Amino acid sequence: MQTEFSRKVVLSVVKTYEDQEFNQVTQGATELSDLKFVDCQFNNCRFEDLTLTNVQFQECSFSHCTIANVTTTFSAGRNLQFEQCNLIGISWGELVIDKYSLVIDRLTNSLLKYNNFIGMELPNFSFTTNEILNSNFEDCNLQKAQFNGCELADTQFISDDLRRADFTAAHNYFVDLQTSRIEKASFSFPDVMGLLESLDIKIKADCKI
Q: What is the reported pLDDT for 202?
């Protein structure tokens, strides 16, 4: 059974949707192309295994949505907001329009898994309140970014600028100290000890003779 959203996609080739609300839409294993969404709201929607070709999302909000395993070509996002969403298998760097625009404007109480952030400008961005699992930040500007209180299991930071970033009470992250800058960043014990993993050194307990 087609949803209202899927019927619109079938009937429209090059189409702009502006200031519209989509509720409880389920779309999967299909290709969407030549679409533009501006100031739209997506609530309780589920998008899985989609291929997006020349699709743009601008100033859109997503609430209680699941977006998983989306492949993008010539597609972009700008100033998107996510609240209580499941975001799985997304490469955010592929959605960047230019280095002066943000793909994600706000991210709250969401689960991110198998996400990639590569070559992105994210200074001062707040990831607080989110879980970010099995994900990768590489060659990103994360100056003054806030990860405080985040669960970051198997999430790695490689060749990033983490100066003045806040990892207070964050857990289970891996930071490559040999490629990343961490001057004046904040960390908490005991997780800060994990920073030494990238240095190929051995730490031994004190031995009393």
A: 59
